[in-house]
Amino acid sequence: METIVDVAQWVLWIACAVILVTWLAELVLKTYLLIKIKQYQTELQPVLDVMERAVAGQLVLLTVEVDHNQYLCYNALTQEFVCQGIDVTEIVQRFRARFPDKTVTIFNGDDTAVATLQQQFRAQHENLNLQ
User: Fold this and answer.
1) Does pTM top 0.85 for this prediction?
2) What's the CA gap between 102 and 118, in Å, rounded?
């Protein structure tokens, strides 16, 4: 009889240990996942802000194509023609003439054109900051 009680106590201790280890592992995993979710949320927040502004109609996302030295810009969401220009300055001027209450960002399109226009935009802002 004592042997059965000893075995039952031993099984009970093992079960408690397994439950405790499982609970601790779950707690560690949940904490890790919450930290990772917070990191992803922080990284994605700027993208979410841009998308929110685009959906609200405050920001126009442009798709850019090139045709003979002209950049043709289309609304990335509706595919409607927006404006064209030979460089980022002309594109911005024509965009503002048509949509004075909205902002614009180059979203996608011809990879070379997007990279060129983004580089022109950065150079323009660096020059403005130096003056």
Assistant:
1) no
2) 19
Beta carbons of 86 and 94 less than 8 angstroms apart: no
Instruction: Give the Cα-Cα-Cα angle 40, 44, 45 (nearest 5 degrees).
Output: 115
pLDDT digits (tens, 9 = 90+) for 54-91: 777 788 888 999 988 899 999 988 899 999 999 988 99
